[in-house]
Amino acid sequence: MPEELSLSQARRVALRAQGLDRRRRDGGGGMRAFQQVVDRLGVLQIDSVNVLARAHLMPAFSRLGPYDVGLLDRAAGTPPRRLVEAWAHEASFVPPATYRLLGWRQRAYRENAWGTIAEVPLRHSVIVDEIRDLVRERGPVTAREVHAEYEAEHPRVISGWGWNWTVAKRVLEFLFFTGEITAAGRNSAFERCYDLTERVLPPSVVALPEPAEDDAVRALVEIGARAHGIGTAECFADYFRLRTERGRRAVGELVEAGVLAPVRVRGWEGRPVYLHRDAGLPRWATGRALLSPFDPLVFERRRLEELFGMRYRIEIYTPAHKRVHGYYVLPFLLGEEIAARVDLKADRAAGRLLVQAAHLEPGAPPDTVPELADELSLLADWLGLDEVTVAGEAHGDLVRALDDAVRAGDAVRAGPA
Fold first, then answer.
1. Cα torsion for 20, 24, 28, 31, to the nearest 10°?
2. What secondary structure, in 3-state letters, does 239-273 show?
3. Quick one: DSSP state of residue 55?
4. Which residue has the higher pLDDT, 116 or 362?
5. How many helices (H) and strands (E) does the chain have?
């Protein structure tokens, strides 16, 4: 690997590390292909927004194409589990071995958890013991089932904003954050089914000694570095939401160990950049993918802007009249460029994938429109939707051309009258 890279070369390194540098094969593959995605990414962020598809389902689609989402359910819900839920990059699925690297954070919940969770032992110490025993005796159980045991004493309070968690849910989330319990799976309503962590993790992982804190942090930073291929200390630390100073110290140690090497990237100045020793540099990047707002490639927004030139902000919590690009906007990767962004919604009742906004990015390849239309059709098929529709009120400079391309694609698939 050269000691100095162009920005184009750095992009290709990043895309190879993420498994996005080449066109997908037909079909999504089975558990082996899914496991390869898990091994490559190291973490799948979970988010409750379901306007299109659950956030943790999208990264595998972006890299495999239409795959069986039941593979993830099996991986996380059937022993021996390949994925376990934890607070990693926010709420996430991680491999069981990675779960053991998070023990130091779980113990330091007073510094690492938000107030609603951190204050639970002070406000509900008796109930913590009771619910811990309840999970031990009856797990796996949902928060709704546990709340039913305490509803008379602690009824639900609706405040008009936020999650409005019950006392039972707060206690369960405290035990979840601290690692005493985790999810044995999710039910059809996407509710966590809580059980003791020791009963969820594979026995071989439970038997492993917990690593020292510095060793665990260094291992987490390396996972982020391998998944990124190239990046800054801040990029690597953000992968597991580590504090920057800890990330920098771990990066220094990994440089000394020969795992990371400093590299110069022309056009990416301002922050020291490092290359993982396993990183590859493909001659070309020919991939195509719609990326969830929670995809690992776009985790760190500053990195995305410095590397791909895209300033990206999720606007879910922005008032509708102030949104620029839309509610649930997905960057569209084509080759080594972020070519466009589209605001999408799955209208399941009508069987339509709705395009509510579409914007072209500077430097987009000339074939962006037909490629995006084809990718939208593939996404609609995977989601079980009958058609792609550009909404009448859709906005953006790409809307008209995309609408024409979608209609032309529909005509081709329909065949002669």
1. -60
2. CCCCCHHHHHHHHHHHHHCCCEEEEEECCCCCCCE
3. G
4. 362
5. 20, 14
Q: What is the DSSP letter of 361?
A: P
Q: Are 405 and 390 in contact (CB under 8 A)?
A: no
The answer to whether the beta carbons of residues 208 and 101 sit under 8 Å apart is no
Query: Looking at the predicted structure, is the pLDDT value of residue 269 above 90?
Result: no
Indicate whether 154 pLDDT > 70: no
Q: Compute the distance between CA of residue 243 and CA of residue 245 in angstroms, rounded to an integer.
A: 6
Interatomic CA distance for residues 360 and 342, integer angstroms = 9
Q: Is the distance from CB of 229 to CB of 220 less than 8 angstroms?
A: no
Per-residue pLDDT tens digits for 231-264: 999 999 999 999 999 999 999 999 999 999 999 9
Q: Are the CB atoms for 97 and 80 separated by under 8 Å?
A: no
Widest CA span in the chain: 71
Indicate the pLDDT class of residue 114, thresholds 50, 70 and 90. confident
**Contact in structure between 415 and 380 (CB atoms under 8 Å):** no
